[in-house]
């Protein structure tokens, strides 16, 4: 069992710890502070119901005009495949709709199969491509797909 709750700037250090476990290129707490100070920026964290609660995953997103953009989403390695990613995205969809956004947008590396499956399941479709946008560990470039859905 888990709960997805909104998080504020005080969560920056915890978000950085989770991000480091989810991505090769870690963002530090200062980066999350800067992100969360941007107008229209929000974070949500999935927590266990244990006492004390342990974080399981996060999403940071931003409303800009008609768009809600997912800036980063991650579920801790040992917690994947339990539909937390789906719950986090659903939370964004509900909150962004409430905030008046009309479209959900995000970017994903072309080779990120788990994320692409999740996004397809949530009815996001490819609307653009940035060629060679990501640099992989061994130096090869990878395209970023821009995906979107109406809200
Ligand atoms: C992408 C990510 C957030 C998905 O989180 P998750 O909690 O494992 O996802 P869910 O359990 O909600 O899975 C939703 C669907 O995605 C698909 N999926 C999840 N993991 C998958 C995998 N390893 N391979 C293929 N498909 C997968 C499944 O179809 C699943 O649906 P199902 O439960 O009906 O089978 C997680 O893998 C992650 O944190 N990855 C590292 C960070 C990252 O890449 N973030 C996205 C950057 S754009």
TrEMBL record:
Domain N-acetyltransferase: 2-151
Protein name: N-acetyltransferase domain-containing protein
SUPFAM superfamilies: Acyl-CoA N-acyltransferases (Nat)
Naturally occurring in which organism (per UniProt): Candidatus Defluviicoccus seviourii
InterPro entries to which the protein is assigned, alphabetical: Acyl_CoA_acyltransferase, Bact_Acetyltransf, GNAT_dom
Keyword Zinc: no
Keywords, comma-separated and alphabetical: Acyltransferase, Transferase
Mitochondrion found in the keyword field: no
GO MF entry, a single one: acyltransferase activity, transferring groups other than amino-acyl groups
């Amino acid at each position: 069992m888990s709960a997805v709750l909104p998080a504020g700037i005080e969560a920056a250090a915890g978000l950085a710890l989770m991000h480091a476990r989810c991505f090769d290129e870690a963002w530090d707490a200062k980066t999350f502070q800067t992100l969360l100070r941007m107008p229209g920026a929000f974070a949500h964290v999935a927590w266990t119901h244990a006492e004390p609660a342990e974080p399981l995953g996060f999403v940071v997103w931003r409303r800009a005009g008609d768009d809600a953009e997912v800036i980063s989403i991650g579920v801790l390695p040992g917690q994947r495949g339990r539909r937390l990613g789906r719950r986090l995205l659903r939370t964004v969809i509900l909150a962004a709709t409430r905030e008046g956004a009309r479209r959900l947008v995000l970017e994903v590396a072309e080779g990120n199969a788990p994320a692409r499956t999740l996004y397809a399941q949530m009815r996001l479709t490819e609307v653009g491509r940035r060629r060679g946008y990501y640099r992989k560990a061994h130096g090869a470039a990878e395209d970023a797909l821009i995906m979107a859905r109406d809200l």
